[in-house]
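>> Question from a student workshop board

For tomorrow's exercise we were told to take the sequence and the ligand below, predict the bound structure, and bring the output to class. My setup keeps failing. Could a helper post the expected result so I can at least see what it should look like? The ligand is glucose-6-phosphate.
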Amino acid sequence: MSGTPEWQALADHFAKVRDMHLRDLFAEDPGRAASMTVEAADLVLDYSKNRLTGETVRLLVAAAERAGLRERTEEMFSGRHINVTEDRAVLHVALRAPEGARIDEGGADVVPEVHKVLERMASFADAVRSGQWRGFTGKPIKRVVNIGIGGSDLGPAMAYEALLPYSQRALSLGFVSNVDGSDIWEATAGSDPEETLFVVSSKTFTTLETIGNAKTAREWLLSSLGDPASVRNHFVAVSTNAKQVAAFGIDTANMFEFWDWVGGRYSFDSAIGLSLMISVGPELFRQMLAGLRAVDEHFREAPLERNIPALLGLIGVWYNDFFGAETQAVLPYDHYLAKFPAYLQQLDMESNGKRVTLDGEPVDMATGPVVWGTPGTNGQHAYYQLLHQGTRLVPADFIGFLRPAHRVGNHHDLLMANFFAQTEALAFGKTPEQASAEGIPERLVPHRTFPGNRPTNTILAPELSPRVLGELVATYEHKVLTQGVIWGINSFDQWGVELGKSLALRIVPELTSEAAPELGHDSSTNALIARYRAARRP
Ligand code: G6Q
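>> Workshop helper replied:
Here is what the output should look like for this input. Compare the format with yours to find the bug.
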């Protein structure tokens, strides 16, 4: 990409606009906000508080077209194996395709399969919610614990929390992911085994953490209920691997299937969302799917300069590759979106944290940024100092809602006043002249000056409903695709997680074997392992 005339045009343009200030850009064009606001589905994106002009957007769109964003998008939607290093289709969009749509993979239409599994999930979720599904001793289920990690955890955990106001409160949900025994300990402590259902979610059903936690959960159950036959009532599986599910002892009649064309971090709306569906019910889950679908259609059809996911992606590229920004903050002004930044961390960083192109050549530009964030207004009293006055450029997405989940006093007005104030302060700052005019003593003026020109996107939606949550997730999924296409990388593999995993497997016996093994690592790792072994001795 970097050798193309489109990229060069962006570089030339950057040299002209890099020092422009948002104060001037807004002063010069009273219509700026109106022309830089896009609406799609239930979402409004105002990207006017970014350091760019209409020309920047035109050039970024030209770069996206040159990189083949449209072609790659169509390839994805039509089931081509765009995950080239794993030779797989990338069809999370099929998970929300309407009945009657047709998407072929491996010579067969996958849409009927998707709907078949959705139906099975719905019957099961209804049975658990209504108390019709009973534990081994005849009690209804009151606690559901999803055991999974990474893509088999972050999505449902995020969405469960996001949709808590829509959940069946009589059912408590827990999410166990960490191999650290404290996680399963806390998730089961105080729970009644007779009323607990474990959903073991693992695409491969071989993941060390998940299988370890599932075994511990089974022991916990059996230590109380005794009879191995009880596993049938208290364990279900979500997986692509029926053989391993059966080997674990879960009846494959209680297995909910998904497919290798759903990447882990793109899977929360597949059967991986079973625990979420149990919590909110099938109807709201379907509304969430409709939200995802609405943005899929928008992304596929809207012109790139009016396309919310594409614009977010391209604006991100602008800061990442021209301004040299290294991070991207995501700041949801909604308590229930506390886990959304963590979810996006995986979606974005595992997808676009790559250093070689699809052809295996080194990428000659910066790829995915470090994504981070926490809900407003908490961050304001913590790290926003750096956003306002630090030396780094931190582009930020502000996500807010017109209506709150709960009308509690004037809390929502206060929350949203902060939401609007922050992007205004970041963009326009406070000049030394303004500070002096406020009577600030001269020696403090430099400290109390805000340079402004700190870029933000504002995403507004009516309320955090299941549908809107789906829209937000699809927006970021397609943002990630947009950027991956520009950088020419494979956003759908994750080889970078393999090395640590295989080294850990090699180290396990070194920690646990009775005979002191010869340690063949570097001197640091050898010494650390020796120290651990010494402390482990009874
Ligand atoms: C996601 C990754 C990864 C994966 C976990 C869990 O895209 O592939 O986070 O989801 O490693 O894998 P399993 O679902 O196979 O247990």
